[in-house]
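Q: what sequence does this backbone want?
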């Protein structure tokens, strides 16, 4: 590395130290969105300056994807395409760094690229085995700590499926004739397609986690998730209520205006009272005045949570403009936002933390639900992939 590269690294490290001191002062995690935003911005500017020196303008491509992402995200956060746009920005940024390195042979860019390539290489060679091992481990933990319902066995079922696929690929695919390999590849391509959909979903889900509504809300909708023993709030639902209560106190502290908590949840066949009533009692025990709590007792799912809550807020505010957010668990945040949009409710969410061991199953469940929302589209894409590979397999069988 030349002297300028060392200066750039020193400036970057000093800036990180400043961010760390700021995070500690504000009692926030060091690896906050600001850390990643600043790191990306810093090295993007560095790459841009290198391009200025060599007189090229490749930086406009990732800049265009970033601008498009920010535009669409600012207009509507609750769109899956936002994940795709952000990943296209990251991909084009990586390609930009590679092109600029090939043009300049800059050692700092080479160092960054080596880190990325090393990570991708390890992921390529060990990722599938590591993923399968993690899924089996997670399935064992969930099996010990949670009920043995189908929704809690998703990581185990995925691990078994990937094991079978990997075993077939390792022991049988190389012995297949060319046309058979092409036919088998259709399965891999469909899996690859759904992996891309999953990756985009996880990207926007994570980005949406960092959305921080302003402390100027009139209502906080707390989404129900079922009671235990017919009348008790389970820990998962309790976290949602506590997250809403936390926001309630923060807004009251900053603006002296308390939002109303709107508990949303109907009564199941195995419940002795509406879920929202149990949620109300839970909040009162936590110190929330009864006058600051509304209840919605008819809903049976998240879409109805949003739809019926909107009716109550419209009536309560005499159809005047109001500000509202919703509280749920972090893994459920993005899909709940989609349901809010479907209910024509302009509301973003705040997410309560969930135990790490529970997240893989929860996100898989959310992903399946997201896929089913657009199942026709995914069926068509999968059918086109399989049809194309069947045609290719036939041509290989016929002429080779």
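A:
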């Amino acid at each position: 590395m030349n002297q300028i590269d060392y200066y750039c690294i020193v400036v970057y490290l000093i800036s990180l130290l400043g961010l760390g001191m700021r995070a500690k002062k504000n009692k926030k995690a060091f690896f906050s969105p600001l850390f990643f935003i600043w790191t990306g911005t810093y090295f993007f500017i560095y790459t841009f300056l290198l391009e200025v020196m060599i007189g090229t303008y490749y930086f406009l491509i990732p800049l265009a994807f970033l601008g498009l992402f920010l535009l669409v995200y600012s207009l509507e956060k609750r769109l899956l395409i936002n994940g795709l746009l952000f990943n296209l920005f990251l991909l084009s940024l990586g390609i930009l760094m590679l092109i600029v390195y090939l043009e300049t042979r800059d050692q700092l860019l080479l160092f960054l690229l080596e880190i990325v390539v090393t990570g991708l290489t390890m992921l390529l060679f060990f990722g599938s085995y590591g993923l399968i091992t993690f899924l089996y481990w997670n399935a064992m933990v969930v099996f010990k700590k949670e009920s043995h319902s189908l929704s809690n066995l998703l990581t185990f079922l995925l691990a078994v499926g990937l094991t079978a696929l990997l075993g077939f690929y390792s022991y049988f695919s190389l012995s297949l004739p060319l046309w058979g390999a092409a036919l088998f590849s259709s399965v891999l391509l469909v899996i690859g397609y759904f992996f891309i959909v999953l990756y985009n979903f996880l990207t926007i889900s994570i980005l949406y986690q960092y959305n921080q509504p302003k402390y100027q809300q009139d209502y906080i909708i707390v989404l129900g998730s079922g009671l235990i023993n017919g009348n008790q709030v389970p820990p998962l639902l309790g976290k949602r209520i506590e997250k809403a209560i936390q926001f309630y106190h923060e807004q009251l502290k900053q603006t002296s205006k308390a939002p109303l908590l709107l508990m949303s949840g109907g009564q199941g066949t195995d419940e002795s009272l509406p879920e929202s009533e149990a949620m109300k009692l839970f909040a009162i025990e936590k110190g929330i005045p009864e006058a600051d709590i509304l209840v919605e007792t008819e809903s049976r799912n998240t879409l109805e949570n949003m739809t019926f809550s909107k009716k109550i807020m419209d009536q309560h505010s005499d159809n005047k403009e109001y500000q509202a957010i919703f509280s749920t668990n972090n893994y459920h945040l993005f899909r709940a936002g989609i349901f809010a949009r479907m209910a024509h409710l302009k509301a973003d969410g705040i997410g309560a933390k969930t135990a790490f061991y529970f997240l893989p199953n929860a996100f898989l469940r959310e992903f399946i639900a997201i896929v089913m929302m657009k199942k026709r589209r995914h069926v068509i894409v999968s059918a086109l992939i399989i049809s194309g590979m069947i045609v290719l397999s036939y041509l290989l069988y016929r002429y080779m």
